[in-house]
Design goal:
Blueprint lengths: L1 E4 L3 H12 L7 E5 L14 E2 L6 H20 L7 E2 L2 E4 L2 H16 L6 E4 L11 E5 L3 E2 L2 H12 L4 E4 L2 E7 L2 E7 L4 E3 L2 E4 L5 H5 L9 E10 L9 E4 L4 E5 L5 E5 L14 H14 L8 E11 L6 E3 L8 E5 L9 H14 L4 H5 L18
Parallel strand pairs: 1-2, 1-13, 2-9, 5-15, 13-20
Antiparallel strand pairs: 3-8, 4-8, 5-7, 6-7, 10-11, 11-12, 14-17, 14-18, 15-16, 16-17, 19-20
Bound molecules: flavin-adenine dinucleotide.
Enzyme class: oxidoreductase
Keywords: Oxidoreductase
GO molecular function: oxidoreductase activity
Length: about 375
Amino acid sequence: MIIIIGAGSHGLSLAYHLIKKGYTKNDIALVEWKRIGYGSSSRNASRYRYHFNSKENVEYALEAIKYLKKQAKELEYNTMLMRTGYLWLIDGEQEYKLFRKLDSFWRSYNIGGKFIDCEKYSYLKFDGNCYLAPQDGAFHHDYILYSYYYSIKDKVSIIYDKAVSLISSRNRVEGVKLSSGKELQGDKIVITAGAWSNEIMSSIGLNVPIFPEKKEIYITEPLRYFIEPLIINSKLQIYFSQTLKGEIIGGIEDKREYKFEEFTISINTIIKFLKTIKNLVKGIDGIGILRGWSGYYEMTPDSSHVMGYSDDWPEGLFIDAGYSGHGMMFAPYSGKIMADLIADSYKSKFIDIFSPSRFNMNRLINETLVI
Ligand SMILES: Cc1cc2nc3c(=O)[nH]c(=O)nc-3n(C[C@H](O)[C@H](O)[C@H](O)COP(=O)(O)OP(=O)(O)OC[C@H]3O[C@@H](n4cnc5c(N)ncnc54)[C@H](O)[C@@H]3O)c2cc1C
């Protein structure tokens, strides 16, 4: 029996890929303590990008986005995948130099962008240079999530309960204890519990450094559609874009401690976001926020994800978590390569690169382009 803990996009994608390999309801138990997509998978900004600063993440994104586009054609619901670009509003000479360097790095992967005078974007109030990464884009997370759920709901055993601790003996996993007091027996356990993953690992004294960082995100009332790319400004620590319905959606950095907090939003941060977008975009002075919500970035020390297993863990224990704010776009591909590993013992090169052992082996990836 394979036990998957957490029904976010990664747990569901893994279940979907295992079912495709012929596994059945008797072979897979999916444990979720709240609801399908309770975590970050239903709380994100639904954007995809190739443009990271580490080669490991660029190489992962190249494969993962190719696979995301393929899945978009196969999944039950229309994922609304579209290429919109990411537009960085560059602040000052130092950031310009950094983007020159990044651009030549990205060119080596055929994903170079364009430096454009920001005046060319007539709706922007920003003097200076813009950098457009035209290859990046958007999708709708709910349609990916619920396509997976729709495909697997009658084919795996879904258990609504909290996994409180792992059971292991003689260096093998044996099952999971649930908060209801029940025990599930399993010889393979996969932790896909997002920001909560380390709570489960620590139940048997293991530590995977994944920390919750609360993020707020807002959506305005709809306007005509005029902002195509996702716009980012690192000095103001803001990102925003427009949905096809015309709402402006985005967030503003509000650096917080890594800790579990209530899923609330704060009026001060809403006002800061609203003022900042009004200072950057023409003609939106009267606009208001319609709603907002919060979720966790599942942060690791190098802002890169953790997948696979560690040789010093009990046999049969796997993880796929810690996506540090960019895990929705990677869920289809990660689910596939985790299923290849678990079902066929086929080890993609990425399993070693993003291994949890890297934190003890000084092989950090150091991603700094976290948006
Ligand atoms: C504001 C915001 C914006 C973002 N924008 C983007 C973006 O534009 N593009 C992008 O690619 N990514 C984005 N992300 C990141 C992305 O949403 C996450 O990386 C991704 O959804 C993680 O998926 P997951 O399946 O690993 O975790 P989650 O979706 O968090 O799923 C974990 C699941 O495990 C369950 N669980 C936890 N503990 C237990 C337990 N003990 N027992 C049983 N179940 C348990 C939870 O209830 C949850 O359903 C954003 C995130 C946020 C918060």
